Amino acid sequence: MTDAPVELYTDADIAGLRRRIKTWTCGLFLFSLLALGVCIALAALTTTGNAQRMELAAIAVSTVSGWIVLYCAIFTVGAARRELGHAGTLREGERQRVEGRVQVTRRWLRIKKSITALAVDVETAEGTKSFWVSRSRAKRLASARPSALWICHGYVAAYEVTK
Amino acid sequence: MRFFKNVFSQLHTFVLWALMSAIFWGWIFTLVTDAPPAKKITVYCYVPEIRDTELAVLLEEDKPDGIKMIQVHNFEYVLFDMGNIENGDIFILPASQIGEYEELLLSKAAGVKVYDAKTHTGAAASYLGYTDEDYYLFLGAKSVHLEDGAAQAVTDSLLEAP
């Protein structure tokens, strides 16, 4: 006997992703303003004697802070946005149930402008079938030891555990 | 390791940002360190070596009223843009170059000797790397500070500079 399907992306997960995006976006915006303020202050404090040093300092502050913002925007906020989009697709899409022995593998796939996924093999009566699970949810799926999966567009959307 | 992989995957973005940052702040500081001709005195020196920033700072210590900044440039600074040099307020030229830049000078005859090659002494000698010939100081023909006396005041400061 199995329990009701357990969603890989719960409402709390989605709310957490939204909160993370909001927090990081606000943080990066404030950090950018701070960096801009420092650069403006450097420009305002420029005199004939220190102009070269101030210019170099402003370029350094602007470049390094820009790199930090870009890195976080692409790899933290961007990743969370992609994850949120993926979760939305899984929650709304049509699903099919697959039953069998589930094994999360180390084979991975990075989809351009989307998530990184790990392959999930399911040994069914008809043979082994492969699906994908978001890397961020792979650990949760593997530790649950599911007996059946709910698949949406080739990705694991939910799982069932045998009692 | 993942950090470096991420950075490498977006290397073009980071390099582009660094270039944009350098160009933008370079432009901003060009604006910040400049002023309209009426608010600045520009000194052009035909010397192989020059401590332009230090000399400008020294001259600014006693700048005339209404003048926001004093700029000191080598002639190499305007090698590709003679438009700027035409509006120069003060010129320091070696005797051999006076004829070539005559049209920039208010009066060729009114030059003040600023360096004597025989005695190796001259004005602002610790800032200007004079060569082995006499140097003269001239006011610029198109200087906007001939009437208000600012160019003359800076000339006096220059002549007293060590």
How would you characterize this protein structure?
The complex is a heterodimer of chains A (163) and B (162). With 163 residues, chain A is an alpha+beta fold. Helices cover 53% and strands 27% of the residues of chain A. Chain A folds into 2 domains: 7-92; 96-160, Beta Barrel (OB fold (Dihydrolipoamide Acetyltransferase, E2P)), CATH 2.40.50. In chain A, the strands form 2 sheets. In chain A, strands 1-7-6-2 form a 4-stranded antiparallel beta sheet. In chain A, strands 3-4-5 form a 3-stranded antiparallel beta sheet. In chain A, helix 1 (11-44) packs antiparallel against helix 2 (51-92). The termini of chain A are close together. The model of chain A has no long low-confidence stretch (mean pLDDT 92). Chain B has 162 residues and is of the alpha/beta class. Chain B folds into 2 domains: 2-32; 37-160, Periplasmic binding protein-like II (D-Maltodextrin-Binding Protein, domain 2, 3-Layer(aba) Sandwich), CATH 3.40.190. Chain B has a 6-stranded mixed beta sheet with strand order 3-1-4-8-5-6. Chain B has a two-stranded antiparallel sheet with strand order 2-7. Chain B is elongated. The relative contact order of chain B is 0.17. The model of chain B has no long low-confidence stretch (mean pLDDT 90).
**H/E series of chain A:** EHHEEEEHEE
CATH superfamily membership of the largest domain in chain B, which one?
A: Periplasmic binding protein-like II
Strand order of the largest sheet of chain B: 3-1-4-8-5-6
The number of distinct helices of chain A, counting runs of at least 4 residues, comes to 3
Briefly, what CATH class of the largest domain in chain B?
A: Alpha Beta
Order of helices and strands of chain B: HHEEHEHEEEEEH
Distance between the termini of chain A: 6 Å
Overall number of domains of chain A? 2
The total strand number of chain A stands at: 7
Helix content of chain A: 40-55%
Rg on CA atoms of chain B, Å: 20 Å
Return the average pLDDT of chain B rounded to an integer.
90
Placed side by side, the strands forming the largest sheet of chain A appear as 1-7-6-2
Q: Structural class, judged by helices and strands of chain B? A: alpha/beta
Helix content bin of chain B = 25-40%
Q: Can you tell me the residue ranges of chain A where pLDDT is under 50 for at least 5 consecutive residues?
A: none
Strand content of chain A: 25-35%
Q: Any idea what the shape of chain A is?
A: elongated
